[in-house]
Inverse folding.
């Protein structure tokens, strides 16, 4: 059964095939950029860290906050104690753009993840060039060689690489790629259902030293507290924050869970 991820990845791979830019020149263009902020280290707190997401819409839920101002929302998140930001840059499916990364990062002192569908070396370089501090690598969208190569390139460019997994086999692949920052997405990409026990099951299988991030299905401080108890260093939260009447307060509640 085809999933929304299949459709999105196909679109991004088509765009990558049409991209005639030189990767070597893109890499060279990153060399004189200002240093990145340490995304991974920002999550290594004694308590639960929150990666707060700037997200206008999703394929499964439709519009969430189509009129949001990235800079204003970033400031709200920072005021609530967010450790990092996640910014969607996919335009077709999520309503985002690289300009959202620049606006959000320019408004606060927090490290920023470019959340998009990375399928090429150029995508990794673009994340660095647009001002991100971390890049998302989705194991389900990449083969083993790509996963390892993109993680290494990210490290060479000064970017953290959040490797996202959805099951045990993808976790094994992430570990084999020397991931030190792993996100467990609890949403089933075929049914859109959330398995809130998945993150707890996978946490026990992660090596020592890996920074653990739980994604999807984090509705409130009770979900956040359960994930912290399961060994997670951070939660990545989008929908419940962008739709909250008080984003700063929503972040603060999860941090205090």
């Amino acid at each position: 059964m085809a999933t929304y991820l299949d459709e999105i990845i196909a679109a991004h791979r088509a765009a990558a095939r049409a991209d005639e830019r030189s990767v070597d020149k893109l890499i060279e263009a990153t060399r004189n950029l200002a240093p990145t902020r340490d995304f991974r280290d920002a999550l290594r707190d004694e308590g639960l860290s929150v990666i707060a997401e700037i997200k206008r819409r999703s394929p499964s839920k439709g519009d969430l906050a189509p009129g949001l101002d990235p800079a204003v929302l970033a400031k709200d998140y920072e005021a609530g104690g967010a450790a990092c930001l996640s910014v969607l840059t996919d335009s077709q499916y999520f309503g985002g753009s690289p300009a959202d990364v620049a606006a959000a990062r320019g408004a606060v002192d927090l490290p920023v993840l470019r959340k998009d569908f990375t399928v090429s070396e150029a995508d990794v370089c673009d994340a660095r060039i647009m001002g991100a501090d971390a890049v998302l690598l989705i194991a389900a969208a990449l083969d083993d060689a790509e996963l390892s190569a993109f993680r290494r390139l990210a490290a060479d460019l000064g970017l953290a690489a959040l490797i996202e997994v959805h099951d045990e086999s993808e976790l094994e692949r992430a570990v084999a790629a020397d991931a030190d920052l792993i996100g467990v997405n609890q949403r089933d990409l075929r049914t859109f259902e959330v398995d809130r026990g998945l993150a707890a099951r996978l946490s026990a299988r992660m090596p020592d030293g890996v920074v653990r991030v739980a994604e999807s299905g984090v509705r409130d401080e009770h979900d956040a507290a359960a994930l912290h108890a399961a060994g997670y260093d951070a939660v990545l939260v989008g929908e419940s924050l962008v739709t909250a009447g008080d984003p700063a307060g929503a972040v603060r509640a999860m941090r205090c869970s």
Observations:
- The two ends are 38 Å apart (CA to CA).
- The beta strands are 49-54, 57-58, 62-63, 84-88, 112-115, 134-138, 160-165, 181-185, 211-215, 234-237.
- The chain has twelve helices and ten strands.
- The first strand starts at residue 49 and ends at 54.
